[in-house]
Amino acid sequence: MLKISDPVNDARQSIEALASKMGLILLVLGGMHFFNLLLFSKIRASALNSRKPMPVGEWPLPAPGPQPPYTGQPQPGVQPPYAGQPQSGYQPYQ
Q1: What pLDDT is recorded for position 90?
Q2: Cβ atoms < 10 Å from Cβ of 81
């Protein structure tokens, strides 16, 4: 592919042959570089998409069936963690 079939007789022909060889090599390397950039951008995009939170429309729905009405009050027998129990690192003022 990079061999010359015609004999080179003078300096002008040798420079033309060298330029055509170097041009072909640079075009091939440029194509490979473009392909690598495309591949790495696809890998990066898929990694960023996997770290995104789930969109609101795709959140899991509550279990079917009757749900207890929300009254704003704790359910009987369920004590929230803030009712009378300080959370970790919380020190009430005294």
Answers
A1: 54
A2: 9
